[in-house]
Specification:
By secondary structure, the protein is α/β, with parallel strands linked by helices. It has 9 helices and 15 strands. It has a single domain, classed as Metallo-beta-lactamase, Chain A (4-Layer Sandwich), CATH 3.60.15. The radius of gyration is 17 Å and the shape is globular. Helices cover 24% and strands 29% of the residues. The structure holds zinc ion.
Length: 258
């Protein structure tokens, strides 16, 4: 008989189902790429379900048919490749109308990554800048449009006094540190050093961020291959030493209290 496992995260926790970023580490699966899932107000949410999100979530006892919502930051494949599988599972093959998806218009209209046939089975909201959404009590506070190659938004997710900020792909700009203020801040840091011509954060940008705002915990994730080769956990330790902020490099399966 098939037995269902219990969820492996508790309320007020998040889990990294993947920590790979950029083409090489994602599409060679150097690290996994299932996105970040979290529970607030006892509701389950998924952020950026990249390649492998369905397999990784179920493997860890996180069943998409328990999802209240999905937040998609942007339409790049390392963030959205599994979104249709997750929707199919969330809506039980289209038999149940369930869940809410917040995604930019560029991902739903311009060059859609969500198939049409299942769209009536969930509530779709197109992300707007600096807007506050509420899904089953959980607040999703979006910030300004990011400097990336397609329409991209991050948000601060909160319920009562539990919250975290998610900074998806972007080139660094000062407003990031003024906007994403929360005890726990997650940033997609693809590179170790600046790479000209790429709209991504690198680990030196974390110093700039921490000069303006110091969270209790800063988590780097979404590592490109060149950063992984430089051992991001060692870079994180170095930043902690210099800034006195608890900076960590995420790993696949890492669970964090929020
Ligand atoms: Zn991207």
């Amino acid at each position: 008989m098939h037995t269902l496992k219990m969820n492996t995260i508790n309320n007020n926790q998040l889990i990294f189902l993947g920590t790979a970023g950029g083409r090489f580490s994602v599409f060679n699966q150097i690290r996994k790429s299932g996105g970040i899932w979290f529970k607030l107000n006892n509701r389950l949410f998924a952020i950026d379900p990249g390649p492998g999100a369905l397999i990784e979530s179920i493997k860890r006892g996180l069943f998409p048919n328990r999802l209240s919502g999905i937040f998609l930051s942007h339409r790049h494949l390392d963030h959205c490749a599994d979104i249709n599988s997750i929707i199919e599972s969330m809506t039980e093959g289209g038999h149940k109308r369930r869940g809410c998806i917040i995604a930019p218009k560029a991902a739903t209209d311009e060059d859609p990554v969500i198939l049409n046939y299942n769209r009536n089975n969930f509530k779709l909201i197109n992300t707007a800048e600096n807007s506050l959404y509420e899904i089953e009590g959980v607040k999703i506070d979006t910030k300004m449009k990011h400097k990336h190659t397609t329409e991209t938004y991050g948000a601060v997710f909160s319920f009562e006094n539990h919250s975290f900020a998610y900074i998806p792909d972007t080139k660094y700009f000062e407003d990031l540190a003024h906007s994403y203020q929360s005890d726990v801040v997650i940033a997609n840091v693809v590179f170790c050093k600046e790479k000209k011509g790429f709209m991504h954060l690198n680990s030196n940008d974390i110093y700039k961020f921490l000069e303006i705002f110091k969270p209790k915990k800063m988590i780097m994730t979404h590592f490109g291959l060149s950063f992984l080769n430089k051992k991001p956990w060692e870079i994180a330790r170095e930043i902690t030493k210099k800034t006195a902020v608890d900076v960590v490099a995420a790993y696949d399966g890492m669970v964090v209290d929020i």
